């Protein structure tokens, strides 16, 4: 499941697109709520996703006002916390980089680094 695969994610934060704004953005004939395009950004994607024409944004974190703006534009948002969107895929990045540069470079992923924020 999501918890085991991605470093202990215990929850996701979701903001649903405003239906009226969705229809304005997608067209009146569009099925309200049908996700056709997704914008994904590891870490803090608020400023990087701004202007990306997608029905759903998935990122680690966005400011309150960035989420409000996305919803008002007719977009939904899923936030899984900053650290979960970065640390979970580092072994895959190391593998890809190792294949590109060969054995002359050693990549080490910290085993002690952790999210400084805790959900209580």
Verbal overview:
The protein has 120 residues and is an alpha/beta fold. It is built from six helices and four strands. It has helices at residues 2-5, 19-26, 46-49, 64-72, 82-87, 90-101, and strands at 13-15, 38-44, 56-61, 76-79. Strands 1-4-3-2 form a four-stranded mixed β-sheet. α3 links the parallel β2 and β3. The relative contact order is 0.18. The mean pLDDT is 82.
What features would you highlight for this structure?
4 strands; 120 residues
Q: Give me the number of helical elements.
A: 6
Query: What does the main sheet amount to?
Result: 4 strands, mixed
Shape: elongated
Alpha-beta content class? alpha/beta
Computed Rg? 17 Å
Tell me the strand percentage band.
Answer: 15-25%
Helix content: 25-40%
Mean pLDDT: 82
Topology:
Blueprint (H helix, E strand, L loop, with lengths): L1 H4 L7 E3 L3 H8 L11 E7 L1 H4 L6 E6 L2 H9 L3 E4 L2 H6 L2 H12 L19
Parallel strand pairs: 2-3, 3-4
Antiparallel strand pairs: 1-4
In short:
With 120 residues, this protein is of the alpha/beta class.
């Amino acid at each position: 499941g999501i918890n085991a695969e991605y470093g202990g994610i215990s929850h996701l934060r979701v903001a649903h697109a405003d239906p009226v704004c969705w229809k304005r953005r997608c067209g009146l004939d569009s099925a309200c709520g049908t996700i056709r395009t997704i914008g994904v950004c590891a870490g803090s994607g608020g400023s990087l996703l701004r202007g990306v024409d997608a029905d759903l944004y998935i990122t680690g974190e966005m400011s309150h006002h960035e989420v409000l703006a996305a919803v008002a534009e007719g977009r939904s948002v899923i936030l899984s916390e900053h650290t979960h969107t970065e640390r979970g895929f580092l072994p895959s990045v190391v593998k890809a980089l190792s294949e590109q540069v060969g054995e002359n470079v050693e990549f080490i992923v910290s085993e002690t680094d952790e999210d400084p924020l805790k959900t209580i």
